[in-house]
């Protein structure tokens, strides 16, 4: 039977606070580095929400496991002065792949979240 361990995003500070998006182009800020290896049933389940403190909507790009392939990009527009908007709803990843993010405007989007490490 699988076990779940809840943990902070590896890209967040030691205390688990939000990750401010400071980059405006690829490669984005590191959000999380997935568990190493490709064993069956061993994954990180990644949950992320975004908030935008700007008075304008801001488009963000999540680079999910890669930065060069358009299939790895998830684009979301975060409304102005919004509360938390879910952007990653428990998607799974492994093999040490990295989730990154960049935004159309620097320093106004903050990401919060956690991972369930499944083994």
Q: How many H/I helical runs? A: 0
Morphology: globular
H/E series: EEEEEEEEE
Q: What kind of assembly state do the chains in view correspond to?
A: single chain
Walk me through what this model shows:
With 119 residues, this protein is an all-beta fold. Helix content is 0%, strand content 53%. It contains no helices and nine strands. It has strands at 4-8, 19-20, 29-33, 43-52, 58-64, 73-78, 82-93, 98-103, 109-118. Strands 1, 2, 4, 7 and 9 form a five-stranded antiparallel β-sheet that branches. A four-stranded antiparallel β-sheet has the order 3-8-5-6, with no helix packed on it. The protein is globular. The mean pLDDT is 95.
Could you give a quick summary of the protein structure above?
This protein is mostly beta strands and 119 residues long. It is 0% helix and 53% strand.
Please give a handful of descriptors for the protein shown.
single chain; 119 residues; mainly beta; five-stranded antiparallel sheet; four-stranded antiparallel sheet
SSE arrangement:
Blueprint lengths: L3 E5 L10 E2 L8 E5 L9 E10 L5 E7 L8 E6 L3 E12 L4 E6 L5 E10 L1
Antiparallel strand pairs: 1-9, 2-9, 3-8, 4-7, 4-9, 5-6, 5-8
């Amino acid at each position: 039977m699988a076990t779940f361990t809840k943990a902070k995003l590896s890209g967040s500070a030691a205390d688990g606070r939000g990750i401010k998006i400071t980059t405006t182009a690829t490669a984005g800020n590191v959000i999380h580095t997935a568990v190493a290896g490709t064993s069956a049933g061993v994954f990180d389940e990644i949950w992320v929400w975004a908030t935008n403190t700007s008075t304008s909507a801001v488009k963000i790009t999540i680079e999910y496991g890669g930065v060069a392939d358009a299939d790895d990009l998830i684009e979301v527009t975060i409304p102005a002065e919004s509360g938390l908007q879910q952007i990653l709803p428990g998607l799974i990843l492994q093999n040490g792949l990295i989730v990154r993010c960049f935004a159309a405007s620097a320093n106004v989007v903050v990401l919060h979240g956690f991972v369930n490490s499944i083994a």
